[in-house]
Amino acid sequence: MAQARRAARLLASLQPEAIVASDLQRAAATAAELAAITGLPVEHDAALRETYAGAWQGLTHEEILEKYGEQYAAWKRGEAVRRGGGELETEVADRAAPLVLKHVDRLSEGGTLVVVSHGGTIRTTIGRLLGLESFYWEGLGGLSNCCWSVLGEGARGWRLMEHNAGTLPEPVLGDDV
Length: 177
Fold this sequence. Notes:
Strand order of the largest sheet: 2-1-3
Largest sheet: 3 strands, parallel
Order of helices and strands: HEHEHHEHEE
Distance between the termini: 34 Å
Number of helices: 5
Radius of gyration: 17 Å
């Protein structure tokens, strides 16, 4: 909760116009911290839930390797794998990215949307919005608890400005933004 409060104080300074969050407990509680500071309502949506990993849910890394070692290896090689019989990463992006775009379309010119979700969902959504092939989404890396990514408008679509950030974004010198 301390991490969520700190992140909320920093993100509030960006003067967000809207907050949308996963309806799962940790994301909802994190979004509530920002809502308390900004006075904005939070719209919760199941489309922002973490990747459903089927039989892998609740297992430790070691247990997954022991029980599903070949499936895990195929996933790490970048193959389309329904981990534990769950969702494909592309299916996560199929449900989350359109929801983000719907909320972005509601913003005023230059408005800021805060999306509170989970690491895998955020990574696949960013990958989709950037137009990257799904094989490369893993290259974006994970997110630490209560850290964020910043996307903005670039000359050719979405642009990743910050990733796994815990401080406010600063312009890059010589950047064409």
